[in-house]
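Lecture notes, unit on binding sites. The following record was shown on slide 14. It pairs a sequence with (2R,3R)-2,3,4-trihydroxybutanoic acid.
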Amino acid sequence: MKKRSLKVLTLFIMIIFAMALVVGCSGGANKEEPKKEEPKKEEARVETIVLKAAHTLVSDHPYHTGLVKFGELLKERTNGKYSVEVYPAAQLGSEREAIEGVQMGTIDITLVSTAPLAGFSDAFLVTDLPFIFTSREHAYKVLDGEIGKEMFSKLEGTGLVGLAFWENGFRNVTNSKRPIVNPEDMEGIKIRTMENQIHMDSFRVIGADPTPMAFGELFTALQQKTVDAQENPLPIIYTSKFFEVQDHLALTGHFYAPAPLLVSQALWDKLTDEEKQIFQKAAYDARDFERKIILEMDNNLLSELKAKGMQVTEPDKSKWQEAMTPVYEKWQDKIGKDLIEKVKAAAN
Ligand code: EAX
């Protein structure tokens, strides 16, 4: 009996031992292998490229909100690869200096009136002629169509790439001397103009005394009476507070100022074809956004400016148009009679 129970005990111990072996080798069926830490994959972080955009107006103006919108669209549509930092109030220089900066690639984007571009290209001179556009619809038909495309193509080789024509708007005369109704009322008035010979000739021909000046110097010049007058659309007159230093507003609407959105050739050449399309579409979408705000402001600000104490006159525009006509005779050879006629014909 003893031998038998010894055998049974030995067999039992061997079974236990064998089981322990099996469990140990399998590493414990139930024992969780410590999960090997996957080496953390570097998050595919997109380095955001922050583009510098310069303009000369205050941050309340649609130039600014339009550029901010442009940046938001780019960031969204390039998955964060591009964003835009907007520098208002001539922080990066006057419009002429901003254009030079874009040419050199030290500034990526600028939004300016066409007038100062006359110093860089003849492409936009036709838009600087007095009363060349009869309405916004007429201006958009020309600027957003083949004629506008042709203007931008003439920037080839200047270091500037035009993406879309945004809006500054129809310009009106303000002054600190007297009510202005007829063109001859401008006799002897010292008026600041943009740095554009067509603008200066348009005021010379009606007897005014034009002084070209960067926008950033204008408020002080009006305040110190270095100049008596200036001309700009209502959104600028209001957001730049010219009502504080100008008593009279004449709704002449003598020039329509387009605002081309320009990017540097250096930036443009770095973009893939897909990114170029994204930039182009965002420029159009932000243009429509900016034009809409400008229009709303233009429609609502007259009462605001009257409330600020400005005396408003509504001149007969046809008299001003007739009085400024000699400017066409002087500039038609340089601009091209055909182009002038094409732009005029687009009004129909
Ligand atoms: O382009 O200089 C001007 O009067 C312009 O309207 C202004 O810089 C926005």
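Take-home: The CA atoms of residues 183 and 206 lie 6 Å apart.
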